[in-house]
Amino acid sequence: MDDQSVPTPLTTVAELERILGERPPVTLLKAIPFLDDHCESFFARSPFAVLGVHGDGGVQHSLVVGGTPGVVAIADRNTLRVESLALPDDLGDGGPAGLVALVPGYGETMRVNGRLYRDGSATLLRVEEAYLHCARCVTRSGLWDDVVVPDASVPAASDTDLDHPAVREFLTLSRFLTVTSTDTDGGTDVSPKGDEAGFAVPLGPLALAFPDRPGNRRTDTLRNLLQHPEVSLLALVAGDDRVLHIRGRASITDDPDLRARLAAGLAEPKLAVVVEVDRVDLTRDPGLAAARLWNPEVRGGQSDLPAAGQIWTDHLALDNVG
């Protein structure tokens, strides 16, 4: 890194729990092993998702799935289906994958983890767990606030680094990103992160850091990074049809100087994630454009979704149902 050395990383779950506390068992009970009626209602209204996949060579990928509501379809209670999605060449059938989906205007996200398969031109995600994610990251990011659509002439940049002016500007504006990570048992997870604009801070051309804020307390991403450092980040800017892809290796630190730097006027985070970057791509994404996430006309689809508390209550009741 250019402007500071790599902070000393945490290496064990015991160190993690010393700082954050133990993971409450109830956080895992909110996940169900199949897709229920609440999941069906959510996906029927969702025009956008990020699919995280773990390639055969260990490389993580973050893929945009965007279009009209229902772009991620429920084939049956154990399977999600996406039509005509271009998958990386290093993906084999049965590999781990995770997905996080958004409904415009709705505070919570839906997360599904499982295994990926090809079915002709379609992509299938066989479900191992599904759960509603708490709204803290969406609330902190102001994701559904009114936005000013940027000039369509703003540039893209492929295979570059964090010093590229367009990338720097994008990171300065971004308040929301997803993190794709995988554990050593072959489980992949896509976690949404949201904060003040510019919360992902470049530490040089090939490194950046972002704060770990309180969320659903499952700490899946942090636990994964202790086992398998490869990550893929996908950052969004509200109203912009570009996505920023960053791939690299991540570590967790409680370095006080870095935590203070990432506070951004809020409470100082207890931990920070540092990514040593391998590749950076800022590209226009037709799926994101087609999803029209910030168009006021599409926000009405969330109005008849039940409150998150009702979904969590129902999922707790279903947790042990096969």
For this entry, give a set of tags:
single chain, 322 residues, alpha+beta, 8-stranded antiparallel beta sheet, 7-stranded antiparallel beta sheet, globular
What would you say this structure looks like, in words?
This protein is of the alpha+beta class and 322 residues long. Helices cover 21% and strands 36% of the residues. The chain is built from nine helices and 15 strands. The chain has helices at residues 13-20, 25-29, 37-45, 136-141, 165-173, 220-227, 256-261, 286-291, 308-318; strands at residues 48-54, 60-66, 73-76, 79-83, 95-102, 109-119, 122-133, 157-160, 176-182, 188-194, 201-204, 207-212, 230-236, 242-253, 271-284. Strand 6 (109-119) and strand 7 (122-133) form a beta hairpin. The longest helix is centred in the C-terminal third of the chain and has 11 residues, at 308-318. It is globular. The mean pLDDT is 88.
What is the overall pLDDT average? 88
Structural class: alpha+beta
Helix content bin: 10-25%
The general outline is globular
H and E order? HHHEEEEEEEHEHEEEEHEEHEHH
Taking all Cα atoms into account, the compactness measure Rg is 18 Å
Distance between the termini: 48 Å
Q: Major β-sheet, in short?
A: 8 strands, antiparallel
* Uncertain stretches of 5 or more adjacent residues: none
Helix count equals: 9
Oligomeric state: single chain
Estimate the strand proportion: 35-45%
Number of strands: 15
